[in-house]
Amino acid sequence: MKILIVDDEKLARDRLQRHLQELGIATEIFHAENGLDALAQSEKQNPDIILLDIRMPGMDGIETANKLSTLDTPPAIIFVTAYDEYALDAFDSQAIAYLLKPVRKEKLDKAIQSANRLNRAQLQNLQLANNKPNKQTLSVHIHSGIRQIELEDIYYFFAEQKYVTVKYQDSDIITQVLIEDSLKSLEQRFEENFIRIHRNALVSKRYLKAIRKDQQGHFLTELKGIDDKLEVSRRHVASVRDFLS
Amino acid sequence: MRAENEARVQALQSRIRPHFLFNSMNTIASLTRSNPEKAEMAVENLADLFRVSLSDARKQVRLEEEIELCQRYLEIEQLRLGERLNVEWELNVPDDALVPALLLQPLLENAIYHGVESQTKGGSIKIIGSEDNKKIKFILTNSLPEKNTQQRQQGNQLAQENVRERLSALYGDNGTLQINQADNLYQVILQFPYELPNQLSSK
């Protein structure tokens, strides 16, 4: 069994490696120091299991897991985290298990055994099932950690200067959060769910009801469940109309 | 007035992040096998840190004690972050000055959490302490992650507010905390009067 250990701290990687060696369950062990490194190693080594730290510089564990799940034969993901209450909510969409640091050898063994019982095809189905559109989420950093917003709760993304505002509903209350992702990357990731209406805005296909011309001749959106009206730029009018028809 | 201030200060008990505690425990668990001496040192440092953190928030200590505590804190983080953490000290302060316990440590913890730890290639912290005309000044500077990375997150300013409040409760307008932020640098400037233990004995 090939196992990839991903953690930005060397001592944390060393400890997991020692556990694995003592358990004698890995034929090959690889290390990665961050999310990007993990993606590269995954493509190269095709590991069966990834032990993935959540809080890492550059690309964090949650984003890495999202990217890994798009691989043809995704590895089984086991999240490893020191302390992150929101991350624990996040794990169920992508991971087989999560472990808390310092990780006990017995718990690591158990998590790996349960991951190993699933063969690749099953795993792929499981991950596909978990990734069906209505379960897709966006992870955002908030002051107390990471929080998952379901895509179907998001009305739109609106870019202003450095940040993008995410307008969404949380238990029927309309609220918003700022993120630092670019609109372009959001558009690429969620093209099935969102449509570009302006240089500065992506709108949920689920909530986009109609577009109407105002007295000044600008096209504005009408959204279900929220009164906000966003401008549709001239170059996007045709594609938005296409979508609505 | 004094009683009211004391109550305020007590409510501002400085807390060490759970994140730091569990990561340190993990570092120690790893070192126990590979380098027992370092593990032992880390346990001693962690114990010192928690002893102060659990003590009365009104407690004041000699500046040299606070600096030593900061050095112990940074030693633990150095074990965890290795070459990713670069620390530079430039101190020219009186050892005997009386300061609130955990005045500097929470700010260093911020510098690591929001600055150094969030950079793939690591980062640096510089601490400059000086005394002039019975006023003590500390400038803490840390590097920040590149702009537009998700890691560059806003903190909730809890630690900073905590230090600011304690300074103002103790020294009024003479105790200040200022923030400067440039592109890739974050700077906290602390200023407060140089007080000796006997000056407060009337308390």
Number of domains of chain A: 2
CATH architecture of the largest domain in chain A: 3-Layer(aba) Sandwich
Annotated CATH topology of chain B: Heat Shock Protein 90
H and E order of chain B: HHHEHEEHEEHEE
Low-confidence stretches of chain B: none
Strand content of chain B: 15-25%
Arrangement of strands in the largest sheet of chain B: 2-4-5-7-6
Shape of chain B from CA axes? globular
Question: Unreliable runs of chain A, pLDDT <50, ≥5 residues?
Answer: none
Mean model confidence by pLDDT of chain A: 85
Order of helices and strands of chain A: EHEHEHEHEHHEEEEEHEEEEEH
User: Percentage of helical residues of chain B?
Assistant: 40-55%
Notes on the structure:
The complex is a heterodimer of chains A (245) and B (203). In chain A, 35% of the residues lie in helices and 33% in strands. Chain A is of the alpha/beta class and 245 residues long. Chain A folds into two domains: 2-131, 3-Layer(aba) Sandwich (Rossmann fold), CATH 3.40.50.2300; 144-244, LytTr DNA-binding domain (OB fold (Dihydrolipoamide Acetyltransferase, E2P)). Chain A has a five-stranded parallel sheet, sandwiched between helices. In chain A, strands 10-9-8-12-11 form a five-stranded antiparallel sheet. Chain B is of the alpha+beta class. Chain B has one domain (2-200): 2-Layer Sandwich (Heat Shock Protein 90), CATH 3.30.565. Chain B contains six helices and seven strands. The two termini of chain B are 13 Å apart.
Note the topology.
The complex is a heterodimer of chains A (245) and B (203).
Chain A: E1 2-6, H1 10-23, E2 28-32, H2 35-45, E3 49-53, H3 61-68, E4 76-81, H4 85-94, E5 97-100, H5 105-117, H6 120-130, E6 137-142, E7 145-150, E8 154-160, E9 163-170, E10 173-179, H7 183-189, E11 194-198, E12 201-204, E13 208-213, E14 219-223, E15 231-232, H8 234-244
Parallel strand pairs in A: 1-2, 1-3, 3-4, 4-5
Antiparallel strand pairs in A: 6-7, 8-9, 8-12, 9-10, 11-12, 13-14, 14-15
Chain B: H1 2-11, H2 18-34, H3 36-54, E1 60-62, H4 63-81, E2 85-92, E3 98-100, H5 105-115, E4 123-132, E5 135-143, H6 158-171, E6 176-181, E7 185-193
Parallel strand pairs in B: 2-4
Antiparallel strand pairs in B: 1-3, 4-5, 5-7, 6-7
Helix pairs in contact in B: 1-6, 2-3, 3-4, 4-5
